[in-house]
């Protein structure tokens, strides 16, 4: 992760997740041969011929009853441009399985850290609290003032399943009040899933003794993750937006939109959008994560960060940095601990990654649009990167077995330099790992993307049979995330911004849906 500049210091007792970054210096190259039709800002509805008085949202009469006897606290109402909403505040620790129902005119608030259940420890036992937080489609949960975040502890689950037309939204108080702009970020913490799968880079214990654990923050009661159950299940999240998250506590201490930490393969993640995180869009700390249909827009650090021994499979992803903001589109490593096992092992297919401009963070930290280093192995198949003003790929060689890359049907549109190497790798060694000219890879690709939708040139690229990478991967007939204009898996459950327009069925990120 990057070192933050002009950091807004906030007085608080908690500390959040720490990451890792690079501190070399890079020199940006020249633009490449790229054609991109940038998305337009969603159009504003025209004023009707006969003026009408908008009614807006009216507040629910009260808060629903939940199974936890602590109940929800009725904190009155909050008014923004979409109307007036009833505010129902969650308890700081949810001790029994509850459901947050969708009720017209009602928002749920996190007034600080909210724990789902109590941490059950390294190993599953009869002492687990076994709490499940269920969130119905269309529910909006917002972080109040201060460091608000959701921690789903080991031995407990989240069941947040929205739909394509009624996504679940986690957002900030300023979003409710209508104060946000296209550059707003870092207004609350995020969602943290804590599991019992294997990790590295231990806070306590060791990988050799199979007792490795890490902690997410430095409060008196830190949230812990890690274990020995790679099939662990932290629940399900589908059709979920996470907006304006990534609360900054200090240099290298911040939360992501979504932070799956030691989650096992039983956890289900699909149709997840991160919007304007002040840190990563999502960072996977170890475990065995699986995710399909991921959208990251406007992350101020990396769109995708994978480390501390994660063995991850992802398919179908759209990652778009805001112009002039963000670090790498992907950072894959293991925090410099090259001797620990399991190694970080990432396999992705059908990703479209776009970084239209050079950013000051990339320049200062010697980050190409993709950074591979540490104790990591990465396979990138059937994917596209468009970064006309940046180097596309940087690899750092360190330790006896440095980072590796396998590329198949991977095309890149970059500046003239294309590659960066450091440590035991130079640029030529990085190019050799990419293997331009073989395996249907192309580092001089002319993109014809229409925003993030494949054009003529993309559709002509031969496809790699990704099912050979494992049963998780679906057969595909095209590279990139979106085959053509008829392929609309991203529509409706995402939100629109000037950085990325997902169509008329998606609403604006700066506003709340009122249905």
Report on the architecture of this protein.
The protein is 4% helix and 32% strand. By secondary structure, it is mainly beta. The longest helix is centred in the C-terminal third of the chain and has 8 residues, at 427-434. It starts with 72 loop residues before the first strand and ends in a 7-residue tail after the last strand.
Radius of gyration in whole Å, from Cα?
Answer: 22 Å
- Oligomerization category of the chains in this entry: single chain
Structural class: mainly beta
Strand content: 25-35%
Instruction: List how many beta strands DSSP finds.
Output: 32
**Residues in helices, as a percent range:** under 10%
Segments where pLDDT lies below 50 for 5+ residues? 1-54
Tell me about the biggest sheet?
15 strands, mixed
Determine the N-to-C terminus distance. 37 Å
Highlighted features:
32 strands; 11-stranded parallel β-sheet; 4 helices
Task: Give a topology summary.
Layout: E1 73-80, E2 83-89, E3 93-94, E4 98-100, E5 106-110, E6 113-116, E7 132-135, E8 140-143, E9 149-152, E10 157-161, E11 168-172, H1 173-177, E12 191-194, E13 214-215, E14 224-225, E15 235-243, E16 248-250, E17 253-254, E18 258-261, E19 268-275, E20 282-285, E21 290-297, E22 304-307, E23 311-320, E24 330-332, E25 344-354, H2 360-365, E26 370-372, E27 376-386, E28 393-397, E29 404-413, E30 419-423, H3 427-434, H4 456-459, E31 495-496, E32 507-508
């Amino acid at each position: 992760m990057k070192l933050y500049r002009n950091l807004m210091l906030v007085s608080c007792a908690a500390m959040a997740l720490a990451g890792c970054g690079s501190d070399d210096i890079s020199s940006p190259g020249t633009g490449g041969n790229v054609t991109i039709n940038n998305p337009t800002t969603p159009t504003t509805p025209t004023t009707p011929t006969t003026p009408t008085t908008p009614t807006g949202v009216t507040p629910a009469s009260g808060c629903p009853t939940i199974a936890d006897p602590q109940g929800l606290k009725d904190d009155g109402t909050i008014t923004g441009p979409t109307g007036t909403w009833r505010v129902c505040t969650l308890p700081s620790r949810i001790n029994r399985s509850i459901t947050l129902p969708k009720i017209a005119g009602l928002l749920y608030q996190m007034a600080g850290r909210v724990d789902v259940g109590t941490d059950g420890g390294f190993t599953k036992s009869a002492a687990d609290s076994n709490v499940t937080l269920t969130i119905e489609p269309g529910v909006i949960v917002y972080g109040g003032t201060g460091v608000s975040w959701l921690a789903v502890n080991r031995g407990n689950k989240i069941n947040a399943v929205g739909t394509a037309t009624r996504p679940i939204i986690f957002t900030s108080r300023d979003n409710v009040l209508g104060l946000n702009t296209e550059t707003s970020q870092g207004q609350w913490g995020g969602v943290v899933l804590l599991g019992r799968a294997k990790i590295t880079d231990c806070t306590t214990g060791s990988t050799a003794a199979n007792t490795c654990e890490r902690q997410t923050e430095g409060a008196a009661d830190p949230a812990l993750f890690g274990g020995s159950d790679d099939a662990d299940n932290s629940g399900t999240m589908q059709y979920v937006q996470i907006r304006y998250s990534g609360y900054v506590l200090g240099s290298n201490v911040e939360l992501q939109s979504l932070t799956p930490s030691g989650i096992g393969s039983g956890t289900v993640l699909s149709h997840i959008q991160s919007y304007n995180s002040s840190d990563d869009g999502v960072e996977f700390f170890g475990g065995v994560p699986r995710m399909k249909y991921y959208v990251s827009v406007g992350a101020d650090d990396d769109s995708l960060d994978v480390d501390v021994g994660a063995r991850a499979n992802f398919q179908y992803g759209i990652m778009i940095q805001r112009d002039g903001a963000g670090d790498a589109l992907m950072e894959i490593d293991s925090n410099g601990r090259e001797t620990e096992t399991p190694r970080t092992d990432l396999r992705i297919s059908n990703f479209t990654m776009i970084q239209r401009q050079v950013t000051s963070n990339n320049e200062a930290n010697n980050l190409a649009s993709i950074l591979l280093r540490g104790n990591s192995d990465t396979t990138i198949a059937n994917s596209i990167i468009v970064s006309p003003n940046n180097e596309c790929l940087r690899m750092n060689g360190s330790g006896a077995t440095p980072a590796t890359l396998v590329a198949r049907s991977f095309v890149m549109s970059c500046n003239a330099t294309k590659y960066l190497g450091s440590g035991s790798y130079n640029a030529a060694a990085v190019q050799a790992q990419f293997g331009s000219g073989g395996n249907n890879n192309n580092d001089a690709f002319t993109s014809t993307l229409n925003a993030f939708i494949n054009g003529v040139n993309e559709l002509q690229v031969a496809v790699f049979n990704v099912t050979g990478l494992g049963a998780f991967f679906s057969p595909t007939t095209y590279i990139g995330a979106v085959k053509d204009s008829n392929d609309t898996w991203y529509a409706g459950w995402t939100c629109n911004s000037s950085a990325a327009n997902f169509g008329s069925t998606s609403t604006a990120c700066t506003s709340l849906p009122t249905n």
